[in-house]
TrEMBL record, chain A:
Region (Disordered): 1-29
A Pfam family it matches: MoCoBD_1
Coiled coil (UniProt feature): none
Sequence ranges assigned to domain Aldehyde oxidase/xanthine dehydrogenase a/b hammerhead in this UniProt record: 36-142
Organism of derivation: Actinopolyspora xinjiangensis
GO molecular function: iron ion binding; oxidoreductase activity
Protein name in the entry: Xanthine dehydrogenase, molybdenum binding subunit apoprotein
SUPFAM superfamilies named among the record's database cross-references: CO dehydrogenase molybdoprotein N-domain-like, Molybdenum cofactor-binding domain
PANTHER family: XANTHINE DEHYDROGENASE, XANTHINE DEHYDROGENASE SUBUNIT D-RELATED
Automatic annotation (TrEMBL), chain B:
InterPro entries in the cross-refs: CO_DH_flav_C, CO_DH_flav_C_dom_sf, Diverse_Substr_Oxidored, FAD-bd_PCMH, FAD-bd_PCMH-like_sf, FAD-bd_PCMH_sub1, FAD-bd_PCMH_sub2, Mopterin_DH_FAD-bd
Single GO MF annotation: FAD binding
Keyword Disulfide bond: no
Top-level lineage group: Bacteria
Protein name per UniProt: CO or xanthine dehydrogenase, FAD-binding subunit
Location of the FAD-binding PCMH-type domain: 1-173
The keyword Cell inner membrane appears for this protein: no
Entry keyword set: FAD, Flavoprotein, Oxidoreductase
PANTHER family: XANTHINE DEHYDROGENASE SUBUNIT C-RELATED (PTHR42659)
Length: 771, 302
């Protein structure tokens, strides 16, 4: 890329030095910038001579395209290109698992919001107005909108030629027909949650002289984006160079392509840099959401409270395209009994195509929905048995050495019972002083002044969960790290280069901490994430500290080995006797031999390493697998909730969490992940739902898609324990997802305790409570 | 798009007369959202931020009643800080508007001009029998707020008129405001209710929001309560209100509503919630009245 084409806002430079090694909590280098509003996000990108792209989207959930007339739009002043499906240079299909989604719709549209045409113009408003001039003649069709019906009613229209089932997976363990003393059953539904990341989809594509394209963007996975984009552009992947720009949150919503191919097509067609930024409303149509689910559960137990069986049928609505639906079915079914030891299991899971908005990755992928159901069932069972709900959970908790429903033996710590005991022991909120005037902000309704205590009842509830870490069922989602150690002005400097996306989780800090600890140097820089290094895989599945952390560790150790070998040769000491300490090379025999910088001289040592996690294997037709998943993580929540039982309004008073993280590489970031995940789970419990009617989103805005504010998210007691996983680098266990999963059922259980209502749907709304 | 920036009020009225289609903008908390969402593409924006007098409020007297005249561009934050004791109901409503940033920018005049059925400022103004002062190059007129709203986001304003001010009689008794939202801050109302006791004229004022195509008062409830209070000699010798009175008041308030089902809530829930809010706010206002202060600056909310 020549300098004349360089974007004025370069990708965020995150090479500020931080202090601290593994186990410490250095401040993140981008923290101050973000708090001050100085951080450059991908939507801030700008280049000389840049055009603006815009996307025409289908107004119908299901329709046949009879014709598209781009003539009037193309003739509009300021418009430089109008593109449709026939302009897609390569494969007009993409997808993370099943390659089933057109870059631009050809003869049919399958959801409201599907991309149909693109415009590039010299001003964003010109581009938007040109969209209105594109004439698409649709033959509107009846949409398929009910996933459960789609699974069983063959007379429904087929959303895709191959039928409406994306994946069906049964899991059978023990005797599926066994009977039990006490049986409880229930039907549970989970609404469509949105990732609600604050930085909308955006990217800047710059055509290159070699016929390729440079794309600056916010994403979770550069290489998977590149692979799909290159195929659609019909370019060699080497000619599609991607550089990470400031990412304003992700939570799974940036795993699928959004504007990537579109913006590159416009740039290659016009020969000019093109930028696309979605606005908030378009963002709701431009990314996948969490799968809504309907779940039928039946639990059987002995009179003493030992689980005898769990049977369930899970229906996940994948919407118009497959995206991560196969994984949602895999996770939902394999984790469908929760963190419990159950001898007899029969679970069936369906992931379906419908004409609803496409659903895919979101924090807690496929584990969030069944957790709401199985934890609700555990409470219902405790009530039927007249047992304490925490005791019932502890009694049935899975632990090290137990076998999951897929036949996998947990060969690492699984301290589920311990987490439950610990979270129960955390301090409860103090009762307000007698006679003290309550501050309305502490009551349900908050600043809206709806109660001064009238109708308010307090409830306490618990939830615990299991989530698999890293990709599963045979995926080899490895990561790559390149580490370069050199002498800069008499000091050793380590440069860490990966493609692993910093999406806000703190990976940028963790990589530096690992390099600092492994190489015993003060100064570590992080190279901007791009595709000039090997793949890191996606920042998802709570996997980056595990796999990219492992790759950085391995690359650092390879660099160290070479450094020690050079030293050994130079000083005539066996390499095995040498170690690094405080920027120096130390011999066991003779003490300090030399500064690292001195040994390096003008030479740099660079090593690249891949880290592959333990092999996993696919499920067979009964859901059996020697090892379906790499690792499991667990968290337990206790929620204290005040409910205005007359108005159905809710104030979560306190939300506490105990979680096993294996090893806290950065303890403060770990707490931050637990707080953030818990807030997202709180959102699902009491307010977050994309309302869809007849295939159309009714609330595509932050005015009506509500996410928690500081008055909704209470203070937390966070209890982190470290029961290291011997199979993982430093013993780490994925952190980001579990708290999103167990917080939701804990909050709903607390609302049930306060109201006596069944509450079988999340989010719980006022009308569910006053019923 | 043309952007007009009059330096003074008469210049603004001239501009509006010459560009009757111009969209006035002050805080921009409604207009900018509509522009950003592409819901509106006005040919001309009329910026009112340079007009000093719109940002002033003063104490006056109208028909012998002490009244506060609030310039149309006074933001919510100042209603809270400067008028919290004089117009407590309005200040309570202002506290529920958006975030601190929105309250710094958003103005009372903008709230009225948008005429959303969910406008938070409207119910307490109705409960206080506020009037609105409209002006154009043709002259000035003042009309009761209840006559100002003519439909969903529609008002009685002529195309050449601007809102100059709102006239709010000073409270002579306790006032309350409550708002239902499914989040504990920064939420558009599912429904709102305001009540004001007017001991000096032995009257009761109410205002309902998000409960009908326009903000409205529950006239029957007002008359019932004023009658019940007078009948029992409660104004001079206040005693606890019988449950039958608060309950009936709640019923009549709920009956005054004509809500719809929408993405924020159902008609049934809105009706139910208004009943509860009417009961509760009346009991808070009455407790305050009984505790002896005719005009109280005390408020329960933060």
């Amino acid at each position: 890329m020549s300098d004349t084409h360089a974007p004025a806002h370069r990708p965020q430079d995150l090479d500020d030095a931080i202090a601290g090694g593994v186990g410490e909590s250095p401040l993140r280098p981008d923290g101050t910038l973000k708090v001050r509003g100085d951080f450059a996000y991908s939507s801030d990108l700008w280049a000389e001579n840049m055009l603006w792209g815009a996307t025409l989207r289908s107004p119908h959930p299901s329709a046949r395209i009879r014709s598209v007339d781009i003539g009037p739009a193309l003739r509009s002043p300021g418009v430089h290109a109008v593109l449709t499906a026939e302009d897609v240079p390569g494969r007009n299909l993409y997808g993370l698992k099943d390659i089933d989604q057109p870059v631009l719709a050809e003869d049919v549209v399958r959801y409201r919001g599907e991309a149909v045409a693109l415009v590039a113009a010299d001003h964003p408003e010109t581009a938007r107005r040109a969209l209105d001039l594109i004439e698409v003649d649709y033959e509107v069709l009846e949409p398929v909108v009910d996933a459960e019906l789609a699974a069983h009613d063959d007379s429904l229209p087929k959303v895709h030629p191959g039928g409406n089932t994306v994946r069906y997976q049964p899991i059978v363990k023990g005797d599926p027909e066994v009977t039990a003393d006490v049986v409880v059953s229930g039907t549970y539904t989970v609404g469509m949650q949105d990732q609600a990341f604050l930085g909308p989809e955006s990217g800047l594509a710059i055509p290159a002289e070699d016929g390729g394209v440079d794309l600056y963007l916010a994403t979770q996975d550069l290489h998977t984006d590149r692979k799909q984009t290159a195929a659609a552009l019909d370019l060699d992947p080497e000619l599609v160079r991607m550089t990470m720009s400031g990412v304003g949150g992700a939570f799974g919503g940036r795993e699928d392509l959004s504007m990537q191919v579109h913006v590159c097509m416009l740039a290659l067609r016009t020969g000019r840099p093109v930028k696309i930024v979605y606005d908030r409303e378009e963002s709701f149509f431009g990314h996948v959401h969490r799968h809504p689910a309907k779940m039928y559960y039946e639990h059987g137990a002995t009179r003493d409270g030992d689980l005898v069986f769990v049977r369930a049928q899970l229906y996940f609505d994948g919407g118009a395209y497959a995206s991560k639906t196969p994984v949602v079915v895999g996770n939902g079914t394999t984790l469908g009994v929760g963190p419990y030891d159950v001898a007899n299991v029969s679970i069936q899971g369906w992931g379906m195509y419908t004409n609803n908005p496409p659903c895919g990755a979101m924090r807690g992928l496929g584990a969030v929905q069944p957790a709401f159901a199985y934890e609700s069932q555990m409470d219902r069972l405790a009530e039927a048995l007249d047992m304490d709900p925490v005791e019932l959970r502890i009694r049935n908790a899975i632990s090290r050495g137990d076998t999951t429903p897929t036949g996998q033996v947990l060969d690492y710590p699984a301290p589920v019972a311990e987490l439950l005991r610990r979270v129960r022991e955390l301090p409860l909120p103090e009762a307000p002083a007698a006679g003290a005037e309550p501050d309305i902000r502490d009551l349900p309704g908050g600043a809206s002044n709806t109660t001064h205590g009238e109708g308010v009842v307090r409830g306490v509830g618990y939830g615990v969960c299991i989530k698999n870490i890293c990709y599963a069922e045979g995926a080899d989602d490895f990561s790559t790290a390149r580490v370069r150690l050199q002498n800069v002005a008499g000091e050793p400097l380590a440069m860490v280069h990966t493609a692993a996306a910093e999406v806000g989780q703190g990976l940028v800090t963790v990589q530096q901490q690992i390099a600092r600890s492994e190489l015993e140097v003060e100064r570590v820089n992080i190279h901007p994430n791009d595709t000039s290094v090997g793949p890191a895989g996606s920042s998802s599945a709570s996997r980056q500290t595990y796999v990219t952390g492992g790759a950085v560790q391995a690359a650092c150790r390879a660099v160290r080995e070479r450094l020690l070998a050079i030293t050994a040769e130079r000083f005539g000491e066996p390499a095995a006797e040498l170690s690094l300490s405080g920027g120096k090379i130390v011999s066991r025999e003779s003490g300090v031999l030399a500064d690292i910088a001195e040994v390096l001289g003008s030479e740099a040592i660079e090593e690249t390493r891949e880290y592959h996690h333990r092999e996993t294997f696919p499920l067979d037709e009964r859901g059996r697998s020697e090892r379906a998943q790499v690792q499991h993580a667990f968290s337990a929540h206790r929620a204290v909730v005040d409910v205005d039982t007359e108005l159905g309004l809710i104030k979560v008073v306190q939300l506490d969490c105990s979680q096993d993280v294996g090893k806290a590489v950065n303890p403060e970031s770990v707490v931050g992940q637990i707080q953030g995940g818990s807030a997202q789970g709180l959102g699902l419990a009491v307010m977050e739902e994309i309302q869809v009617g007849e295939g159309k989103i009714r609330n595509p805005s932050f005015t009506d898609y509500l996410i928690p504010t500081i008055l909704d998210m209470p203070p937390m007691n966070v209890d982190v324990i470290e029961r290291g996983d011997p199979n993982a680098p430093y013993g780490v266990r994925g952190v980001g997802e579990p708290p999103t999963i167990s917080s939701t059922p804990a909050i709903v259980a607390a609302i049930r305790a306060a109201t006596g209502r069944d509450l079988t749907h999340v989010p719980v709304g006022p009308e569910h409570i006053i019923g | 798009m043309d952007f007009l920036r009059p330096a003074g009020w008469s210049e603004a009225l001239e501009a509006k007369a010459n560009h009757p289609d111009a969209t006035p903008i002050a805080g921009g908390t409604d207009v900018m959202v509509e522009l950003n969402f592409d819901h509106r593409r006005p040919e001309t924006l009329l910026d009112l931020t340079r007009i000093e007098q719109l940002r002033e409020w003063s104490r006056t007297e109208r028909n012998g009643v002490p009244t506060v005249r609030i310039g149309a561009a006074v933001p919510y934050a100042r209603l809270i800080e400067e008028l919290g004791t004089t117009l407590p109901g309005l200040a309570m409503a202002a506290r529920t508007v958006g975030s601190p940033q929105i309250r710094n920018r958003g103005t009372l005049g903008g709230n009225l001009a948008s005429a959303s059925p969910a406008g938070d400022g409207h119910p307490p103004l109705l409960a206080s029998n506020a009037e609105i002062e409209l002006e154009s190059v043709r002259g000035s007129r003042t009309l009761p707020l209840a006559d100002f709203f003519t439909g969903v986001k529609r008002t009685d304003m002529a195309p050449d008129e601007l809102i100059a001010a709102v006239h709010v009689p000073e409270g002579t008794g306790p006032q309350q405001f409550s708002k239902i939202g499914t989040r504990n801050a920064m939420v558009i109302a599912v429904c709102t209710f305001a009540v004001a006791l007017h001991p000096r004229r032995r009257g009761v004022g109410t205002g309902l929001g998000s409960a009908a195509p326009t903000p409205r008062s529950a006239t029957e409830a007002e008359e019932f309560l004023a009658g019940a209070l007078a009948e029992d000699g409660q104004w001079d010798d206040p005693r606890p209100l019988p449950a039958s009175v608060t309950e009936r008041f709640g019923e009549l308030v709920a009956r005054a509503a004509a809500p719809i089902d929408d993405v924020r809530g159902t008609a049934g829930y809105r009706t139910h919630a208004l009943h509860v809010l009417a009961r509760r706010t009346l009991s808070w206002a009455w407790d305050e009245y009984r505790s002896g202060t005719e005009l109280s600056g005390r408020q329960r909310c933060a």
